[in-house]
């Protein structure tokens, strides 16, 4: 069965430790990180371990990804993420041709993904 991941942004107004405990008790195994959490990466990784949760994916702003993709990769690796996604694209950055959507996010052996200028998704897991 595919794991269902909880997007932590939905609980941004509550203490992180309480949210992680609640999710673990509810049976979640995976959570998804977002921008405001990345400032606390050292403690975030420990909090995840303490709750028995993993963070296979991150939502990371497109501007931040383009400005410093290596910072996003470092954060992803620190929390054990496999993929980093830009959660929302402004209209000019969105693929217009639906046929292009299939190439937007593809594993690429730890390099930037191809499609849409390689700007939408970074995959960290090795094939």
Commentary on this structure:
This protein has 127 residues and is α/β, with parallel strands linked by helices. It has a single domain, classed as Alpha-Beta Barrel (TIM Barrel), CATH 3.20.20. It has a 5-stranded mixed sheet with strand order 1-2-3-4-5, with helices on one face. Strand 2, helix 2 and strand 3 form a beta-alpha-beta unit. The longest helix is centred in the middle third of the chain and has 11 residues. 22% of the residues are buried.
Can you list the strand order of the major beta sheet?
A: 1-2-3-4-5
Give the number of domains. Answer: 1
Q: Determine the structural class based on helices, strands and strand pairing.
A: alpha/beta
Number of strands: 5
Number of helical elements: 4
Listing every helix as H and every strand as E from the N terminus to the C terminus, the arrangement reads EHEHEHHEE
Largest sheet: 5 strands, mixed
Which architecture does the CATH hierarchy give at level 2?
Answer: Alpha-Beta Barrel
Given the C-alpha coordinates, what overall shape results? globular
């Amino acid at each position: 069965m595919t794991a269902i991941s909880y997007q932590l942004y939905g609980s941004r107004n509550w203490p992180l430790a309480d949210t992680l405990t609640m999710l673990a008790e509810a049976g979640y195994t995976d959570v998804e990180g977002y921008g405001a959490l990345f400032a606390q990466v050292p403690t975030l990784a420990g909090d995840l371990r303490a709750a028995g949760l993993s963070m296979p994916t991150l939502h990371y702003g497109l501007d931040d990804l383009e400005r410093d993709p290596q910072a996003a990769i470092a954060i992803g690796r620190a929390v054990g993420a496999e993929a980093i996604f830009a959660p929302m694209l402004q209209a000019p950055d969105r693929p217009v041709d639906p046929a292009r959507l299939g190439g937007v996010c593809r594993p690429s052996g730890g390099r930037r993904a191809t499609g849409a200028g390689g700007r939408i998704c970074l995959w960290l897991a090795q094939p």
